[in-house]
Amino acid sequence: MIERIHPPGAPAPRGPYSPAVRGGDFIFVSGQVPPEPGDIGHETRQVLNNLKGILEGCGATLADVVKCSVFLADGRDFAGMNAVYAEFFGESKPARSTVVTGFAIPNIKVEIDAIVYKPR
After folding, report:
1. CB contact burial 1-16 (16+ within 10 A = b; e otherwise)
2. Phi, then psi, of 75 in degrees rounded to 5
3. Is-contact 26 115, C-beta < 8 A?
4. Which of 61, 74, 88, 106 is the most exposed place for a label (fewest CB within 10 A)?
5. Confidence of residue 105 (pLDDT cuts 50, 70, 90)
6. CA-CA distances (angstroms) from residue 88 to 47, 51, 54, 57, 64?
7. Closest CA relative to residue 43, chosen from 18, 72, 14, 68
């Protein structure tokens, strides 16, 4: 069974997609972008707080994340993103891919999505 999840307090999607979708024991969280521009540390913190809030609304935590994809507008921001990312995940490090790409949304430096394993 597929369940589309719109957790209370989650940022409203900026397009035709669900913030999260549960398929069996997995939750797929759509890419999160910062609500306001700033330096890479500020934007990464906003994105990971959004992700954390969506997970809480789904009954999960960052410790349940098994895979993240990180998209950066500029590869020079990797170290700043990575430092904040490490603060959030600590010892519960998920698998991760990081891709440097341009964004269709102006002034966005980072986007992060996640795959979560949370048995029902």
Report:
1. eeeebebeebbeeeee
2. -60, -20
3. yes
4. 106
5. confident
6. 11, 11, 14, 17, 13
7. 72
The token duo for 102 is 């341009």
pLDDT single digits (tens) 64-96: 999 999 999 999 999 999 999 999 999 999 999
Quick one: pLDDT band at residue 107, thresholds 50, 70, 90?
confident
Question: How far is 38 from 92, CA to CA, in rounded Å?
Answer: 27
36 class by beta-carbon count within 10 Å (0-12 exposed, 13-18 middle, 19+ buried): exposed
Place of tokens 């890419």: 31
> Whose CA is closest to 35, among 27, 26, 43?
43
